[in-house]
UniProtKB/TrEMBL annotation:
Keyword Phosphoprotein recorded: no
Keyword Hydrolase: yes
SUPFAM superfamilies, per the entry: alpha/beta-Hydrolases
Protein name: Alpha/beta hydrolase fold family protein
């Protein structure tokens, strides 16, 4: 900005990174044209930062379980419920919450046993997708989310689809991010799960050791992407730390074992998608080893109007393509009719 008491050629770059200030300090004092270009660029940078929506970190009790959740945006605006994958948490949506919270209300919970929610002892709490869906349904009641756009990633699909079938009128539109509901989308990893599903006792130690390892946690993010330098190692090292908290081995084993029931439910979910014909956005990272792009294109079989975008990214496509995912999601939401994007009620 131009200081009120300064000469016309003096610019204050307060708020602009020092590296920019130092690099261009000589140029801006000797070239009015460069001065104005830099001022315009700095204004855009600062405006962009100012538009990032703040995130609130909250908790709520559901069946005596503390559920942690992130929230961004005004609750009077159209609501998105964001359901995370494995072994992540609502943290995976931080970037999206900040980018969309200016115009939308976003609520992203951690499932029991994940993130900062309570992790009840598996001896007393059934870690099944049916049960997670029940808890998340009660969570929406607790936070007053009566109608919403349902955004799902990975484990979010089996949780979210159960919720949708139970309360179809609550769902205004669907967004799938590497969230599979078609057998065509199953990668080779699922063949390796079948022996475990057939005989849990014989294979549990091996499955858990692989699932909880650094190598597997890393591979979930990078997959087949040759551009490994684009991925922040903290993404999987933080998840590795979470995965190896006390009690996590049993929690994760229970859910991996129960996943077989998701595959059995695919035909029911597909029939629901075909019958409802809801506005649907599908965004997929093509380097995902668990869920292949065929799973993305399959949505068009039951909903020909589904918008399908396969991006050059991994299983957690926002790792490297956050701006693209945010732009696609915003454009999709902006096109929804007002009746299909009602606010949450508190």
């Amino acid at each position: 900005m131009i200081n009120g008491g300064a000469t016309q050629d003096t610019i204050s770059l307060r708020g602009v990174p020092e590296s920019i200030d130092a690099r261009y300090s000589h140029a801006i004092h000797n070239s009015p044209e460069k001065k104005m270009k830099l001022l315009a660029a700095a204004t855009l940078v600062l405006a962009s930062a100012a538009q990032a929506a703040p995130i609130a970190y909250r908790t709520v009790k559901v069946d005596d379980i503390t559920i942690a959740y992130r929230e961004a945006g005004d609750a009077s605006k159209p609501t998105l419920l964001l359901l995370h994958g494995v072994p992540s948490s609502s943290r995976m949506y931080d970037g999206l919450l900040r980018k969309l919270g200016d115009q939308y209300h976003l609520v992203a919970p951690d499932y029991p046993g994940f993130g900062n929610s309570d992790a009840p002892d598996p001896a007393n709490f059934a870690y099944t997708f049916d049960h997670l869906a029940q808890v998340m349904q009660k969570f929406t009641d607790a936070v007053g989310a009566q109608r919403y756009v349902l955004l799902m990633q990975d484990y979010g699909a089996p949780v979210g689809m159960r919720m949708a079938l139970q309360r179809p009128d609550a769902i205004q539109a669907l967004v799938f991010q590497n969230a599979n509901v078609y057998s065509e989308g199953l990668g080779a990893i699922w063949e390796k799960r079948k022996p475990f599903w057939a005989d849990r006792a014989a294979h549990e130690k091996e499955v858990v050791a692989g699932h909880q390892s650094v190598a597997t946690t890393r591979a979930r993010h990078i997959g087949s992407d040759p551009h490994v330098e684009a991925y922040d190692p903290d993404l999987w090292m933080d998840e590795y730390a979470y995965l190896n908290r006390p009690g996590q081995a049993r929690i994760q084993a229970d859910l991996i074992y129960d996943y077989q029931h998701n595959l059995a439910a695919y035909p029911q979910w597909q029939a629901w998608l075909k019958q409802r014909q809801l506005p649907t956005l599908v965004v997929w990272g093509k380097h995902d080893l668990a869920f292949t792009p065929e799973g993305a294109y399959a949505f068009r079989r039951d909903n020909p109007s589904a918008q399908v975008h396969v991006l050059d990214g991994g299983h957690f496509v926002m790792d490297t393509r956050l701006d693209d995912v945010a732009a696609l999601t915003r454009a999709f939401l902006d096109r929804l009719a007002p009746a299909a994007a009602g606010p949450a009620r508190r």
